[in-house]
């Protein structure tokens, strides 16, 4: 396990946050005063490809290791926050059709929250990873005003995750599928070129945000179109999977092809945020994902382009802010911990 740069010991009871990913788990500890006890990633292998039993055991190892690292007695832990990639129910049951990270049959319909709760003997509060990141972004940005404000976050990755936070808490919905912002269908006028095919998402929808603003959208829809417009571009000679992953590096160099692709992505997210403005009128719009990990000038350009393509009324524009998700690699575990702390403090789980 990686050593933390700075470690504090708890000054009160605590909750633990566990972020489960395709290759690694990330763990953190949050005490009752709102202080995180580690300042950077603390990881161990997630072993999700070995099936549920191994994955749950790896989460238990992450839990034990973070307590040891922070010198936190088990008796001080009141609850554990867990996040995983979706799709999953609000209670942490993996989709009956599986998911990108959980593709073996043994994962289909597996109740990972209850399994970890039984393994640890502690209450486990579940969120999907995008909701957890959105929750942390909200609390980090608003601080003491977090429980009185609202926000919407779009997390651009392999797909497009998201989260809607109202009065400091994630909106989950009846089936746990609120905040699936990637599958909101958007008006494509002003996003696509006149001769550009309507993008199709892996979910089957046409013209949803994920079909454009995601790595999958780049690979399946945007890049095949734009390399025909730039046939001499170096990426035109690359396999599309590799070209899609290389594209951000070109974007950081203001490459015309890459700029065209990322402009379309930013416009699509702007359309999404315009819809959000008319549903929830949030106080903040957050942008996260791979773009946040890019060079500072590029991520600021991307955020500015999203803002320019979000149509707000004058009153909304004065009241709302646009910001990047902070501490992105730690946002999942930290958001999971924030949810657990709130559950313990309010008694609502």
From TrEMBL:
It comes from the Bacteria. Pfam families: ROK. Belongs to the ROK (NagC/XylR) family. This is Glucokinase. It comes from Actinoplanes siamensis.
């Amino acid at each position: 396990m990686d050593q933390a740069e700075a470690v504090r010991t708890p000054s009160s009871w605590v909750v633990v946050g566990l972020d489960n990913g395709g290759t690694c788990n990330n763990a953190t500890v949050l005490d009752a005063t709102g202080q995180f006890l580690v300042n950077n990633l603390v990881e161990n292998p997630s072993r999700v490809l070995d099936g549920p039993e191994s994955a749950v055991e790896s989460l238990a190892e992450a839990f034990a290791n973070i307590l040891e690292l922070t010198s936190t007695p088990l008796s001080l832990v009141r609850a554990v926050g867990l996040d995983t990639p979706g799709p999953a129910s609000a209670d942490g049951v993996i989709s009956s059709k599986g998911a990108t990270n959980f593709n073996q049959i043994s994962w289909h319909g597996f109740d990972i929250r209850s399994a970890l709760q039984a393994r640890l003997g502690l209450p486990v509060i579940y969120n999907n990873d995008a909701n957890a990141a959105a929750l942390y972004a909200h609390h980090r940005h608003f601080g003491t005003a977090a429980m009185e404000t609202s926000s919407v976050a779009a997390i651009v990755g392999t797909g497009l995750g998201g989260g809607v936070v109202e009065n400091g808490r994630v909106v989950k919905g009846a089936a746990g599928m609120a905040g699936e912002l990637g599958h909101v269908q958007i008006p494509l006028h002003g996003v696509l070129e006149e001769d550009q095919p309507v993008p199709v998402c892996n979910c089957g929808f046409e013209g949803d945000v994920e079909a454009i603003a995601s790595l999958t959208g780049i690979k399946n829809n945007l890049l095949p179109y734009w390399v025909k417009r730039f046939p001499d571009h170096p990426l035109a000679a690359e396999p599309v999977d590799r070209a899609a992953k290389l594209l951000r590096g070109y974007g950081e160099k203001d490459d015309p092809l890459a700029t065209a692709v990322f402009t379309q992505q930013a416009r699509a997210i702007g359309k999404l945020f315009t819809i959000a403005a008319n549903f929830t009128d949030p106080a903040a719009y957050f942008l996260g994902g791979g773009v946040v990990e890019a060079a500072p000038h590029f991520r600021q350009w991307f955020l500015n382009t999203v803002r320019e393509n979000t149509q707000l009324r004058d009153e909304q524009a004065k009241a709302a802010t646009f910001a990047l998700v902070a501490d992105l690699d730690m946002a999942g575990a930290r958001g999971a911990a924030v949810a657990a702390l709130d559950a313990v403090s309010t008694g609502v789980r």
